[in-house]
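Weekly structure sync, notes
Attendees: PL (lead), two postdocs, one rotation student
Agenda item 3: pending single-chain targets
PL asked that the sequence for the first pending target be pasted directly into the notes so everyone works from the same version. It is reproduced below exactly as submitted, 334 residues in total.
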Amino acid sequence: MTATDSTAREAERLAWARAASGNAALELHRASVDAGFRSYWRTANAGESRIVMDSPPALEDVRPWLRMRDLLEAGGVRVPRVLVQDIDAGFLLLEDLGGPTLAQVITEADADAHFDAAIDQLLKLQRIVPPPGMGEFGEALLQRDAGLFEEWFLRRHLGIELDCGEAEQLQLAQRRLMDNALAQPRVLTHRDFMPRNLMPVDDGPAVLDFQDCVIGPIAYDPVSLFKDAFLSWPLARVDGWLARYHARALEAGLPVPPRERFLRDADWLGIQRHLKILGIFARLNYRDGKAKYLPDAPRFIAYLDEVLPRYPELASLRELLDARIRPAMLRVAA
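Predicted structure, written out during the meeting:
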């Protein structure tokens, strides 16, 4: 979007918000922005605070967000309430769920209670029957995710060109991770169910950023919750939370495998997700000019360092990490 387009959109957004609220004195202040093209604006001079979602139609269609919001709400998941909508213009007036996300308020002392409430919402989400035609987290999506890591993180960010043997090492590990994901029971999957996308309201937490839900492996969202892209916890505590989720999922009648198998599945999906996110963060930096994500890359290397020693089957990935990736990260950081 050019500067002229941006200025025109700003004026259109404010005029729409004033008309939708019935308050000609209303002003808007930036509330948050995500990695896509949507932006969020908090009302001022308007009595009770509201949020305007701006989803420019030419860049990001708001209808998938609305369809998924309605599906989740019908399943009992706490999601933002829509007060006014204008699909053609790409504007929504939403309830204001407050400022801080769960990622900003959670502490070591209250993490158990917050995560238990998050599990409540996740179990509701996973019990929803996916509608016909919903996308799947299958072979094509997994292959795309695998390519992000090699193309953007290894090649573009670290300047690594793998030789034939190294490429085979990576492909072997990626294939095993993909086979594990494909073999898991399938449920409705958020794909970014993490504290940054949860709002700590009394009847929540409320779930955000759900428009890309797919049918996917049952362990994906639990491991996303506890091994966050922006917030890390000790491995022993993560293992305990995963076990807690597993027990509650069994009680809820969800198709989780036996506990030890589930914990392995979660570890392997975590590894797959960490590699994908490294690629996404590098792409956001180099392609989209969004530099704030890439500094979190060492967090994902630390996740890999924690879990890879548990699985000799993934030794080829560990060897690549030690021989090529870690030295290249030191060079880039120098």
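Discussion points:
- The mean pLDDT is 94.
- The CA atoms of residues 133 and 194 lie 26 Å apart.
Action: rotation student to compare against the earlier draft before next sync.
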